Amino acid sequence: MNYEMDGKVAIVTGASGGIGRATALAFAESGASIVVSDVQEDKGTETVRRIIDRGGQAIFQRCNVADEDDVKTLVGRAVSEYGQLDYAGNNAGINDIQKDEYDRDVWQQSLDVNLTGVMLCLKAEAEAMMAGGGGAIVNTSSIMGLVGNPMQVAYTASKHGVIGLTRHAALRWAETGIRVNCVCPGVIETPMTEVISQNPEIKKTMEAMTPMKRLGQPEEIASAIVWLCSDQASFVTGHPLVIDGGATAV
């Protein structure tokens, strides 16, 4: 789907692979110029190469979203390189189901990246977008932002927080021409979920828990993110869009 974003500029954080890479590619396919961001420089640069190989425009800017100076530099790079900022996909996040999230260091890192990082990005992106007359932002939450999880206290709390941040930001900037939404993916086959997808028994269990009987693909989330940023979603703001194969409908 081409949403006619020629002349527009998008930032995508966490774009070294998975949902972030798919989102960067999807924005580029609609004509936007992309600032690809991640802490993994080699993989982020690979995303840029794929966009350019397909005829798009992209640059890489390293950014730890939990570092406010890094975030300001990221947004500043978009404006200095392309003259504006129109869209943002705040996708950067961490999740390691093998760690004890009641450990204070693990808890704090999860909150720093998954929640504070989104807040810092929202703040800097909105400032740039207001200067340009508006824009659209999509944050990546999770179905764990809507339901409980007995195993992951930090991830669940942070993703609930992302939905709250999204609703706050949608209200705060509603009259400035900035729309803010979030997506809530179910289990998606990405590098982050390899511990699930590469274990046949665990994967079979997860598929059985999903009414559509399969795991999602990054491109299915990316398509929703780009649509939410497009003019076709011009009256949508403050919405957590669930994309989970029916898992939370049970």
Task: Characterize this entry briefly.
By secondary structure, the protein is an alpha/beta fold.
Describe the overall structure.
The protein has 250 residues and is of the alpha/beta class. The chain has eight helices and seven strands. A seven-stranded parallel β-sheet has the order 3-2-1-4-5-6-7, with helices on both faces. Strand 1, helix 1 (18-29) and strand 2 (33-38) form a beta-alpha-beta unit. Helix 3 (68-82) runs parallel beside helix 4 (104-131). The mean pLDDT is 95.
Secondary structure layout plus pairing:
Blueprint: E1 9-12, H1 18-29, E2 33-38, H2 41-53, E3 58-62, H3 68-82, E4 87-90, H4 104-131, E5 135-140, H5 153-172, E6 178-185, H6 194-197, H7 200-209, H8 218-229, E7 240-243
Parallel strand pairs: 1-2, 1-4, 2-3, 4-5, 5-6, 6-7
Helix pairs in contact: 1-2, 1-8, 3-4, 4-5
Largest sheet: 7 strands, parallel
Give the averaged pLDDT, no decimals.
95
Distance between the termini: 30 Å
Total E-strand runs: 7
Strand order of the largest sheet: 3-2-1-4-5-6-7
The secondary structure category is alpha/beta
Could you name the key traits of this structure?
250 residues; single chain; 46% helix; seven-stranded parallel beta sheet; alpha/beta; 8 helices
